[in-house]
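Consortium newsletter contribution from the modelling node. Members have asked for a concrete example of what our holo predictions look like. Here is one, prepared for the P-hydroxybenzoic acid complex that several groups have been discussing at recent meetings.
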Amino acid sequence: MKTQVAIIGAGPAGLMLGHLLRQADIDCVILERQSRAHVEGRIRAGVLERTTMDILDKLGINRRMHAEGLLHSGFCLADGGRLIHIDIAELTGKQVMIYGQTEVTRDLLDAAPDRGLEVLWEVEDVELHEITTETPYVTFVKGGESARLEAHFIAGCDGFHGPSRRSVPQRAGREFERVYPFGWLGMLAEVPPCRHELVYANHARGFALASMRSHSRSRYYIQVPIDERVEDWPDERVWDELSLRLGAEVAGNITRGPALEKSIAPLRSYVFEPMRHGSLFLAGDAAHIVPPTGAKGLNLAASDIVYLSDAMIGFFKRKDALGIETYSARALARVWKSERFSWSLTCLTHRFPDDSPFDRRMQVAELDYIASSPAAQLAIAENYVGLPL
Ligand code: APR
Ligand code: PHB
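And here is the predicted structure:
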């Protein structure tokens, strides 16, 4: 098989790239390890920056997002009963869209056939070859048959555990990582949200987040110890903990109900540099991970793909290699600023096991400062809505 761009991974990064390249009439094929049902069944975050919405608008894959998504103009930080409202629309002139990544993925997949975007599902043993030449190729097994896909470029959109980043020789790359000493227990329930906006709570017992998917479906999170098991958290225990951590005013409006989904995820900050090695380009979770506190994971994948699709379209359509040459530096400049924001908001709102009384006072002082300073609120708001590309 031959194509212009071999894309590994049918998550948000791979699917957005595939659509943008096909829209520019560039050949590409997506190789995905899992089944379509598995990919569509993933429950992830749900806050879209303007950058991400713009991609879906540009692709014309935006009807359901505008019909079912919820535009939000602010969110709250909670600290022991105090609610600090961050009015992102007033401060930045921008809003964010509450629309689950699950829905984004479903919309991109439903639109793939009309775009002529081919996804090969359940491919195994994907391996990258000759990635420092101009004739790289990918080998894989599909339905028991070995296959080879020759391409001009390979886009590694295969997430944190995929083969692409591992194909870069150790001497050619550098990792930066912070693993947090706790995880997030997430719960999805078909109950109305407790508040019209998201609430990020810092509490002595740990962090909690009240989010939503629609006016009838809520998404909640609580910080749990790193080795916690979801079996030890029956629904009622989660509801009780949320009520304690979110504070009386917010908790008073919580509607309880059975969990549709409940799982625990670890938190880490991670960046791999550079995001290009020869003919291989890394994008999304394949290159970087953020703690979910700032809801930046999907949005960073989107900004990577804006840079990468512009670069590849410039190369194939205008024989302009500037975007290709500058992709890694441009993408990383935005990645690091989002890493900083996600790390900072995590440190502000979570309880660290080795926190000293001084550390706690620093959190209280920072929350007091944010509560009293429009400048501090603007700094948070412009990061939350997404920094300019
Ligand atoms: N071969 C083919 N496909 C693979 C392989 C492999 N060896 N390994 C992983 N994949 C696929 C995964 O099955 C997944 O569908 O690559 C895809 C990677 O998708 P994501 O992990 O969703 O990463 P990305 O597209 O960068 O999107 C980042 O997704 O996981 C969330 O929190 C993350 O919001 C962030 C967003
Ligand atoms: C979610 O709704 O899943 C969500 C929202 C905001 C976050 C993280 C997750 O920061």
